[in-house]
């Protein structure tokens, strides 16, 4: 068995020269066809003598390419039907290259000249088609068509290009799979793991196949990094035999691996905005870097502020507030309130000394009234505000209109209605709002969606 394995290794080793050898017949035969056509003109007639040699060299290199390609096929990981078509088209091309050489040195008759011309046309078309099929095997079936313009796609019967994801300018609105995980796998992994070339029976071009994995194990096991074969492979030391991608291909950066980890540990959802997850520390820094939001003028989380007064922070912590910086090296704060007693000793005014630092604030189910929103309206750097399950009304929402950096607002279980929403229309950065179990009507929601198509409005199943 070891001897057979060693022989097979040698076969695959030699076969891996196929991508190098295959360019010889392409170049040689194309030059031969060009000279054959040019030699028809009197002033280039001297080129005629070189055509038989070129066709002969092209035929020999085409045969070698077929042999090397056959050896490479033992490596496996290719779609059987696509591989079979490519192989037989390559063999046909080699056969016709041999025939072209034979007819070039044959005694010239009118019939032979017609056959020569026909063979040249077939070789020209065959080179393009065979090369296209080889490209599909190597890079995936959509490699050539992925960036083709719609008029050309329509001409060849392809559907229009899918709409591009809008550029991410606000971290909270980025989709963790569509904007982060899928693009990184497409850039670094899909060339070897696609429906036409599934090394290790692993396909990474769709969500379902990413989760499924391949012959070495499940691609993603929710909440378990060690059992997630995809994560294990990309996070190994680069010198490890199982590390992916293999030598010669650019690996994922440390920040990209951190975001893959974040995705898996948060349930590996098929879609879900970054604002839905608790992102802090290294994860936040990684997200900003990967999405190109570091120092971005539209990124409110890149704002520079003075550090909060440590005595104020300590006092608030003692009263039941949880206060954390959103990332290492940042003075911006994520504040929530978790105490279940002594609520009468806690007031929103106590947060005012931190109004410049607070960007995330979670005060759900704290019996907040409209006057409390007047205080919160002074937190001008606020990015995400969760005040669900509080008895606030439309009147109070007018105070939030000053929060120009607000991106996410959770109003679930409040008393706000259609009039209150109109007071929030001045918030240019607001991209997501939660409104289920409120008095907002579906008609108002539909009007807002039509007016602001980029605004995500979550109304749940209880909206009226």
TrEMBL record:
Cross-referenced PANTHER family: CYCLOINULO-OLIGOSACCHARIDE FRUCTANOTRANSFERASE-RELATED, F-BOX DOMAIN-CONTAINING PROTEIN
Superkingdom classification of source: Bacteria
Stretches assigned to the Cytochrome C Planctomycete-type domain: 189-248
Keyword hit for Acyltransferase: no
A Pfam family reported for this protein in Swiss-Prot or TrEMBL: PSCyt1
UniProt protein name: Planctomycete cytochrome C
Bilayer-spanning residue ranges: 20-39, 51-74, 86-106, 113-131
All residue ranges annotated as the DUF2231 domain in the record: 17-138
Keyword terms: Membrane, Transmembrane, Transmembrane helix
